Amino acid sequence: QVQLVESGGGSVQAGGSLRLSCTASGRSSYDMGWFRHAPGKEREFVAAFSWSGGHIYYADSVKGRFTISRDNAKNTVYLQMNSLKPEDTAVYYCVADPYGRPWSTSSEEWTYWGQGTQVTVSS
User: What is the mean pLDDT of residues 71-90?
Assistant: First the structure.
């Protein structure tokens, strides 16, 4: 079993930045990433970083603004969010998966989920 603990959410004005962190307990050889869930919308894939090969994937909506990175020694993945927009407001969830599908944008294919952290962007 893996536990994911997120931190770094908060409130910011449009154009600002936030950095989310997620630390995984137990094994470190998981693909890790982020989803978000805004009120009235479905959960949305944001970004992922593969364990093998260091491949990175982004949703089109965040490309060029968000950067995902990971520190395998610390079992931690980060999401640097710049140029934030009000439409980025959501609960952000850290995810991890051992089955080698880091490209998957389907929430059903990510096995482990953190508790979520709120990000609020005001205009």
Answer: 95
